[in-house]
């Protein structure tokens, strides 16, 4: 796996590189600004980019804009975004896009090495990885619609973990239940939200968006 890191904090940038190289991964470039990051993407053609949300010169959304441009240039590039805070607008947009190979983690998650590496590999494999704290904060701000009101507490918990991008097996491990039990909960969620198997949309993504769309409207 070839990786480019775009992070303006030198300690975090070097720490990430050391961690990834210790895992046998190939860090082909490290940058601290958006322009060299895009140049590195063009030159090295990495599999994954790890990008800080806020980068010089204004430390607002330069990292996000650079990540979007990198994906425009290389649509198959997986991107794992790191942020010190919950950027609600970006997190919601990430989920609503339903795009593959995208992740959003809080920087504190990097210190939890196993979870960070799991998220990195999931994104590299074309999946989605969203920090549990991001999901929790978004759901706290959300007023459920009538359909969501019908979900049991356990079903809402399953749906929240689904929003992190985890599959049924991983959800079962998180909740200490069988995968069959998770399947039953998800089937019930789809039924209560009137999401039919014949629908042309991804039912998992649509169920998560029912939580997050109201939050976006009220932000």
TrEMBL record:
Residue ranges annotated for the Response regulatory domain, each copy included: 2-122
Keyword Phosphoprotein: yes
Gene3D superfamilies from the UniProt entry: 3.40.50.2300
UniProt domain HTH luxR-type: residue ranges: 144-215
Any Gene Ontology biological process: phosphorelay signal transduction system
Record flagged with keyword Transcription regulation: yes
Short name of any one Pfam family annotated for the protein: Response_reg
Residue numbers bearing the 4-aspartylphosphate modification: 52
InterPro entries: CheY-like_superfamily (IPR011006), NreC/VraR/RcsB-like_REC (IPR058245), Sig_transdc_resp-reg_C-effctor (IPR016032), Sig_transdc_resp-reg_receiver (IPR001789), Tscrpt_reg_LuxR_C (IPR000792), WalR-like (IPR039420)
Lineage: Bacteria, Bacillati, Actinomycetota, Actinomycetes, Micromonosporales
SMART domains, per the entry: HTH_LUXR (SM00421), REC (SM00448)
Protein keywords: DNA-binding, Phosphoprotein, Transcription, Transcription regulation
Entry superkingdom: Bacteria
A single GO molecular function term of this UniProt record: DNA binding
Full protein name: DNA-binding response regulator
């Amino acid at each position: 796996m070839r990786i480019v890191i775009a992070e303006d904090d030198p300690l975090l940038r070097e720490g990430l590189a050391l961690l990834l190289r210790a895992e046998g991964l190939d860090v082909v470039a490290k940058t601290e600004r958006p322009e060299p990051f895009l140049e590195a993407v063009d030159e090295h053609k990495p599999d994954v980019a790890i990008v800080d949300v806020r980068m010089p010169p204004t430390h607002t959304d330069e990292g996000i804009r650079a990540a979007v441009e990198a994906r425009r240039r290389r649509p198959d590039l997986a991107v794992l975004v790191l942020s010190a805070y919950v950027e609600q607008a970006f997190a919601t947009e990430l989920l609503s896009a339903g795009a593959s190979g995208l992740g959003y983690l809080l920087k504190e998650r990097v210190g939890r090495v196993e979870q960070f590496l799991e998220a990195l590999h999931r994104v590299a494999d074309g999946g989605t990885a969203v920090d549990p704290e991001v999901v929790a904060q978004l759901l706290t701000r959300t007023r459920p619609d009538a359909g969501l009101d019908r979900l049991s507490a356990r079903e809402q918990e399953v749906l929240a973990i689904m929003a992190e991008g985890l599959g049924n097996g991983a959800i079962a491990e998180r909740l200490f239940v069988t995968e069959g039990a998770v399947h039953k909960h998800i089937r019930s969620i789809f039924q209560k939200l009137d999401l039919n198997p014949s629908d042309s949309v991804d039912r998992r993504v649509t169920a998560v968006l029912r939580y997050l769309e109201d939050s976006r409207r009220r932000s």
